Amino acid sequence: MQLGVSIEVADAKGCTPVIIASQYGRTMLVGYLIGKGACLTATDREGDTALHWAAFKGNRMTVLLSFDLMLRFISSQATALHFRALTMLVG
């Protein structure tokens, strides 16, 4: 960012900063990175996104943030299953 490093830089496993923040449940950092332009649809070498990792690790707030933001950007691709999953998390 300020030092000229891409926000989408990935480690050997293909994890970007937003994916790693999701893995560790750092919801505020996820929001910060997204605000700085991090891509929520980026995947690691296994094909998992930040949302997948947050759900796998049980980070409810990170899931809600990621899911909400993803739906805003790709709402035309969201299915009824996506919306049901969101209502189950909130309710």
| Morphology | globular
What structural class do you assign from the helix and strand content?
mainly alpha
CATH topology: Serine Threonine Protein Phosphatase 5, Tetratricopeptide repeat
Mean pLDDT rating: 79
Count of helical stretches? 5
**What count of domains describes the coordinates?**
1
Gap between N and C termini = 37 Å
Element string (H = helix, E = strand): HHHHH
- Round the Cα radius of gyration to an integer and report it: 13 Å
Q: Please, what is the CATH homologous superfamily?
A: Ankyrin repeat-containing domain
For the largest beta-sheet, the strand count, sense and barrel status come to: none
Low-confidence stretches: none
| Oligomerization state | single chain
- Architecture per CATH nomenclature, i.e. the level-2 architecture: Alpha Horseshoe
Q: What's the total number of strands?
A: 0
* Helical residues, percent: 40-55%
SS strand fraction:
under 5%
Top-tier CATH class:
Mainly Alpha
